Amino acid sequence: MTHPPAPASIDEATGRWIELVGAHNVRDLGGYLIADGRVTRHGRLFRADGLANLTDDDLDMIDALGIRTVIDLRSTTELTERGRFPLERYPVAFHHLPIVDVTWMETGVPVFPDTADGAVDFLVWAYHDMLAIGADRFARAISLLASAGATPAMFHCAAGKDRTGILAALILGGLGVDDDVIAADYGLTAIGMQRMRDWVEINAPESFELMNDRPAMMFSSDPAAIARLLAELRATHGSIAAYLSSIGVSAAVLADLADQLTR
Q1: CA-to-CA distance for 74 and 24, rounded, in angstroms?
Q2: 20 to 30 A Cα–Cα from 109, which one of 93, 127, 187, 255?
Q3: d(CA 18, CA 4)
Q4: In a domain, 250, yes or no
Q5: Is 41 helix (H, G, I), strand (E, B) or coil?
Q6: Is residue 52 assigned to a domain?
Q7: Using CA atoms, how far apart are residues 100 and 90, in angstroms rounded to an integer?
Q8: Is residue 105's pLDDT more than 80?
Q9: Per the omega criterion (within 30 degrees of 0), is the bond before 152 cis?
Q10: Does 11 have pLDDT greater than 60?
C-alpha cells in the first residue's frame, strides 16, 4: 500500500524533532492548522517516548523548552521497572495515567498476517482495544493539557508510538487538524523507532535481542493505521470531537486546549 508524502508542515527540516540523548522519539506538535484557522504554536506541546533515562544535558533542554507538565501513559509495571521522569532533578507537574494495565508484550495478541496490511489490521485492533480500556485516561490527559498553566507540556509512553500516537491523534483530530496531517505526524515515529533500535542495540543488547524476537508488526507505525482509526471513530460518532465528547471531553475543554496551544 502506498501513501502520500508527508505534508511540508511536518517535514523534519522544520525543527520538529527534539534531540535528546536519553529519549529518541521526541517531537513538537506545533505548526498544525486547526479548524478555526489558527495554527498550533511550536513549543507548547510535545510527544515523546520513555523519559526515565534523560541526561543532565537532556534536562537542560527540557528546561529550555519550559516544560511544566509531564503525562506518563505507561502501565504501573513499566513505570516501576523502567523508572519515570526524573522529578528529583527537574520538578514538574507529573501525572501517571496508565492507558492499559498490561502491554501486548505481556499478554500476546490475536494472529494477524505477517504483511504490511496485517500490521495495519493489528494496530487498528490494538488501538480500538486501548480506547475501550483507557478512554477515561485519554480524556483525563486532554483535560489536564487544557488546564490553565499546563503548557508547555510533554506526554509519553514507552516508545512514543501507540498510546502516545493515539493521544496525539485525538488531540489534533479534536481540534480539526486534517487526517492526512495527523497520519503523517504519526508516521514520523518510524524515524524515532529506528533511533531507539540503534540505541538499544549498542546500550542494551539483551533488550535488543528481545525486540528482535517480537513480531515486526508491533514496531510498525504505518500512517494508514491511525488514518483508519480516525475514519472509524468518525463513522461511528460523526466527528473526533463528538467521540471525545462521548468519553467526557467537552467542547469547552477543546476550546481551552485550542487556546493553550495557539496563544
Answers
A1: 16
A2: 187
A3: 25
A4: yes
A5: coil
A6: yes
A7: 27
A8: no
A9: yes
A10: no
Q: Is 161 exposed, middle or buried (0-12, 13-18, 19+ CB in 10 A)?
A: buried
The SS3 assignment for 71 reads strand
19 belongs to a structural domain:
no
pLDDT digits (tens, 9 = 90+) for 177-232: 999 999 999 999 999 888 877 777 687 767 656 666 676 667 788 999 999 999 99
Angle (CA) 188 58 81, round 5°:
80
How much is the pLDDT for 249?
98
109: containing domain: 25-262
For residue 175, the SS3 value is: coil
Positive/negative CA dihedral, 154, 133, 251, 95: negative
Q: What percent of the chain has pLDDT over 70?
A: 87
What CATH number should be reported for the domain holding residue 218? 3.90.190.10
User: Is the distance from CB of 240 to CB of 257 less than 8 angstroms?
Assistant: no
Which letter does DSSP use for residue 202 in this model? H
**Pair 246, 160: CB distance under 8 Å:** no
CA distances from 117 to 58, 121, 180 (A): 37, 6, 18
CA distances from 153 to 95, 119, 136 (A): 11, 31, 19
Q: What is the tally of structural domains in the chain?
A: 1
pTM, rounded to two decimals: 0.90
- Please indicate, yes or no, if residue 139 is contained in any of the structural domains: yes
- Answer whether 180's CB lies under 8 Å from 4's CB: yes
124 neighbors 230 (Cβ within 8 angstroms): no
Q: Decide: 220 and 119 in contact? Cβ < 8 Å.
A: yes
